[in-house]
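dude i think i finally got it to work??
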Amino acid sequence: MDKKVFSLLVSIMLLQSGCSNVEPWVKPYERANLADIAMQADRNPVSKAYTNHVREAREGARGAAGGAGGGCGCN
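look at this
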């Protein structure tokens, strides 16, 4: 076997073995704290939707967030 191929296979095996013992960072009893309203990035969903609409109207061709309409903002 070629030396480069052997070293590539060994490095792949070492990288894959590093992911085998992953424990969850958040314990099941801590998930209630993360689901609290204070932990949400957008506390006001109406305001977030309006801000997304304004951004899409300004960009014109964005549309990646799933909104419809063009650049005029009249939809």
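The chain has a mean pLDDT of 75.
im so relieved honestly
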